[in-house]
Q: What sequence folds into this?
């Protein structure tokens, strides 16, 4: 039995069987000899893997040429060229044929040697190809192992994926019928992979550091997404204990669910609007079932992450219309694509960005890829004829970005009007506040935007300079930091002054303590993952806004995050022990 711990990112408990997803980028394969008689068959295996990889790349090249242009698709040509290049193929084949090693070792050894040579080459063109060679190796290795996306789609029931790291795209592609949880070596609390896990209601633990080195395929595994514990090969006693816990968790869920039809209202009668964050339209029924009053954040980039071709205007439109139909008059806040950083774009780049979180992401990416942006704006406008749609731009850092977004929107409105297509000309246009610059300048933005939505996932990352996806600095990722609270206070103030609604749609809004602070700062709309709605509602119904105001006023004045956090938690434990697990005050 092995017990390890990581960062719990998606609540829930599961007992399942390990499926070890090999690290795609790894070039480390141990030397393994084969029987000399087996060499022809192994050569044939290599050939099949090579041809399958070329077929995949051909398809990728064709798709991306049509959608993104020849320049962007060039990367696949380099990979195809390498898979036909005798200077690469000859040594691999001869290692199998004459050296009698496995195709896996021959491939990884040859490509690693070449990558090392390229890395040391004085010409930067060679250096920039190092990652491509690694990708190529991982592609061939995954074909050789047969553990491709296709096999992942056919895993047995009750499978827990164990991987070094997962991209949001991989996670979004999981077959939820069979995959019941996942555990990774890397990752942080608010990484998009974690967010997708929440959306799919998959128990998940990330940042365990070395789970892949300890786990074996088929092993029994317990994933405790509540406190971050992972147990491999548990004994019968532990299995029985967790079976009990799973039952108890089901019961708690049922009792929290009973709140669904009650209003999210504080003890002093202030109503809080409780909305849901979605990545996929099919999350809406659950969101409504949990008592959500609409969608406060639709992460539309997932339309890109779950298909091999970028979505067309019709794909966008149908997705939004589908949401509106299910929402039956409740609001739908559509965020324009937030691609970049840990989502999507780096895989397409010939030269990945060095600092993608500080790179061409979100609204910046949309403003550069104007055709893609306009396609989405048109679809949103068309959908706005069918229900209460709001639109917001992600990661706005300066006013010019917001104005440009609005400018494109106006242009698309004019086009639609000329074509006689219906849309809502008074559609509300807001922005996410996710960078300190935007929070500090909130009073300027407030003159132009229709609403603010504070995205604490990024705001915390950029304020504290802590990568939200990096488990090594996860302990520094602390939303109840006076610096973060002061920024949110400034945004709330700016909104109040101009009578502009301010909401919060970061993960922290689902944390009862942070939700209390937001209410104290005057935020009256919270948008959280569907599964978090019941707990947040229970918290709201136990809080008094005046008390929250006093708590946050004090918390904001401390010199350190440690003091703020411990003060806030101690106070809340005394005031609302039923939510914060403290002893009732006398
Ligand atoms: C945020 O940054 O808080 C947010 C809601 O956006 P995302 O998590 O998609 O970056
Ligand atoms: Mg964000």
A:
């Amino acid at each position: 039995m092995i017990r390890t711990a990581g960062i719990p990112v998606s609540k829930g408990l599961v007992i399942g069987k390990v499926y070890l997803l090999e690290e795609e980028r790894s070039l480390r394969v141990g030397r393994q000899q084969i029987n000399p008689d087996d060499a022809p068959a192994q050569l044939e295996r290599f050939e099949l893997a090579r041809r399958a990889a070329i077929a995949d790349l051909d398809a990728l090249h064709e798709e991306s040429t049509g959608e993104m242009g020849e320049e962007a698709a060039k990367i696949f040509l380099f990979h195809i060229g390498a898979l036909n290049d005798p200077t690469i193929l000859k040594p691999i084949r001869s290692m199998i044929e004459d050296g009698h090693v496995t195709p896996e070792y021959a491939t990884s050894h040859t490509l690693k040697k070449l990558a090392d040579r390229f890395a040391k080459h004085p010409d930067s063109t060679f250096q920039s190809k190092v990652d491509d060679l690694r990708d190529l190796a991982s592609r061939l290795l995954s074909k050789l192992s047969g553990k491709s996306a296709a096999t992942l789609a056919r895993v047995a029931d009750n499978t827990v994926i164990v991987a070094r790291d997962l991209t949001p795209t991989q996670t979004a592609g999981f077959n939820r019928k069979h995959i019941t949880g996942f555990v990774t070596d890397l990752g942080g609390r608010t990484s998009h992979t974690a967010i997708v896990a929440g959306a799919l209601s998959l128990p998940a633990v990330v940042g365990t550091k070395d789970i892949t080195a300890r786990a074996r395929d088929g092993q029994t595994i317990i994933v405790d997404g509540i406190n971050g514990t992972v147990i491999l090969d548990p004994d019968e006693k532990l299995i029985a204990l967790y079976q009990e816990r799973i039952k108890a968790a089901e019961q708690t869920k049922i009792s929290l669910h009973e709140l669904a039809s009650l209003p999210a209202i504080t003890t002093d009668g202030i109503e809080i609007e409780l909305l849901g964050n979605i990545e996929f339209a099919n999350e809406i029924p659950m969101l409504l079932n949990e008592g959500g009053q609409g969608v406060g954040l639709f992460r539309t980039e997932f339309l890109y992450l779950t298909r091999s071709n970028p979505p067309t205007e019709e794909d966008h439109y149908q997705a939004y219309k589908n949401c509106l139909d299910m929402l039956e008059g409740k609001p739908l806040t559509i965020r324009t694509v937030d691609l970049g950083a840990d989502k999507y774009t780096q895989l397409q780049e010939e030269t990945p960005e060095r600092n993608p979180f500080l790179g061409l992401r979100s609204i910046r990416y949309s403003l550069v890829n104007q055709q893609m942006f306009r396609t989405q704006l048109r679809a949103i406008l068309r959908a706005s004829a069918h229900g209460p749609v709001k639109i917001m731009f992600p990661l706005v850092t300066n006013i010019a970005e917001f104005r440009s977004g609005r400018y494109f929107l106006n242009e698309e409105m004019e086009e639609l009007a000329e074509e006689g297509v219906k849309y809502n000309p008074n559609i509300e246009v807001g922005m996410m506040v996710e960078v300190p610059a935007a929070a500090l300048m909130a009073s300027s933005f407030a003159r132009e935007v229709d609403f603010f939505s504070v995205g604490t996932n990024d705001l915390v990352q950029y304020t504290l300079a802590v990568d939200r996806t990096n488990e090594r600095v996860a302990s520094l990722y602390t939303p109840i930091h006076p610096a973060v609270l002061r920024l949110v206070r400034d945004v709330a103030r700016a909104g109040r002054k101009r009578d502009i609604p301010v909401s919060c749609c970061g993960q922290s809004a689902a944390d009862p303590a942070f939700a209390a602070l937001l209410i104290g700062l005057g935020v009256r709309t919270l948008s959280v993952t569907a599964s978090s709605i019941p707990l947040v509602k229970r918290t709201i119904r136990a809080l008094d806004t005046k008390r929250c105001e006093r708590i946050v006023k004090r918390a904001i004045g401390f010199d350190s995050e440690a003091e703020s956090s411990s003060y806030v938690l101690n106070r809340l434990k005394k005031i609302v022990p039923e939510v914060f697990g403290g002893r009732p005050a006398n």
Observations:
- Residues 195, 297, 299, 338, 434, 455-458, 505-506 surround phosphoenolpyruvate (ligand 1) (CB under 6 Å).
